């Protein structure tokens, strides 16, 4: 079975990208990393791993999200990308992009979905009195953070936990969960 050609979309530090790069890439191969933020540290991580890294700044597109996504899509198609992984990509995608990559577009979210879609998940989990927390890998659909769940990792919330301590521990789980789920999806496609 040939490895699936994967692009990772980022906006920032790229620790999940690093985990995807460091994992044994036997089912997938990361061939391209694109950031909508030109200063994203994750671009350097990609280059250090010998992977093509492109900054596609969304700002010149103004409010025209779809025009940005059409250029993004063109880059992916040019490189024969088969699977797209969002890893801290901080742009909500329009139906154009989501439908173009339906079933081949995944995201990692720092909560046990369907609990706490959106932002500030760790603080909201504490405020809600949750005893468990974690992360979710899911297919991307038009509604944010609500596609089919491919995998979850769970951990207890401990007395004295803060949003920061939770963020640290959830991130460790993310780094283990994402490569596993991406590989499983790559094998299934
Ligand atoms: C992660 O917590 C991820 O779940 C969320 O954004 C964060 C990205 O971190 N979507 P990094 O850029 O992968 O370090």
Describe the structure.
The chain is α/β, with parallel strands linked by helices and 189 residues long. The protein has one domain: Formyl transferase, N-terminal domain (Rossmann fold), CATH 3.40.50. Helix content is 37%, strand content 23%. The chain is built from six helices and seven strands, in the order βαβαβαβαβαββα. It has a seven-stranded mixed beta sheet with strand order 3-2-1-4-5-6-7, covered by helices on one side. Helix 1 crosses helix 6 and helix 5 packs across helix 6. The longest helix is centred in the last third of the chain and has 26 residues. The termini are close together. 40% of the residues are buried. The model has no long low-confidence stretch (mean pLDDT 97). The structure holds 5-O-phosphono-beta-D-ribofuranosylamine (GRF). The site of 5-O-phosphono-beta-D-ribofuranosylamine has 13 residues, from helix 1, strand 5 and helix 6.
- State Rg: 16 Å
What structural class do you assign from the helix and strand content? alpha/beta
User: Shape, please?
Assistant: globular
Please state roughly what percent of the residues sit in beta strands, choosing from under 5%, 5-15%, 15-25%, 25-35%, 35-45% or over 45%.
15-25%
Which helices and strands occur, and which strands form pairs?
Elements: E1 4-10, H1 15-22, E2 28-35, H2 41-48, E3 52-55, H3 65-78, E4 83-86, H4 95-100, E5 105-109, H5 121-127, E6 132-139, E7 149-156, H6 163-188
Parallel strand pairs: 1-2, 1-4, 2-3, 4-5
Antiparallel strand pairs: 5-6, 6-7
Helix pairs in contact: 1-6, 5-6
């Amino acid at each position: 079975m040939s490895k699936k050609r994967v692009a990772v979309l980022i906006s920032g530090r790229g620790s999940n990208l690093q985990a995807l790069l460091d994992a044994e890439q036997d089912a997938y191969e990361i061939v391209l990393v694109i950031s909508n933020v030109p200063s994203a540290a994750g671009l350097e991580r990609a280059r250090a791993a010998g992977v093509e890294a492109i900054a596609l700044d969304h700002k010149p597109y103004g409010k025209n999200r779809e025009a940005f996504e059409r250029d993004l899509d063109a880059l992916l198609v040019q490189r024969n990308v088969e699977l797209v992984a969002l890893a801290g990509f901080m742009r909500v995608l329009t139906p154009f992009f989501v439908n173009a990559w339906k079933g081949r577009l995944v995201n990692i979210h720092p909560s046990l979905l369907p609990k706490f879609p959106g932002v500030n998940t760790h603080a909201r989990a504490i405020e809600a009195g949750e005893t468990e927390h974690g992360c979710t890998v899911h297919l991307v659909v038009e509604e944010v953070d609500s596609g089919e769940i491919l995998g979850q990792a769970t951990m207890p919330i401990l007395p004295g936990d803060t949003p920061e301590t939770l963020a640290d521990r959830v991130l460790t789980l993310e780094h283990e969960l994402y490569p596993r789920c991406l590989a499983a999806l790559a094998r299934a496609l």
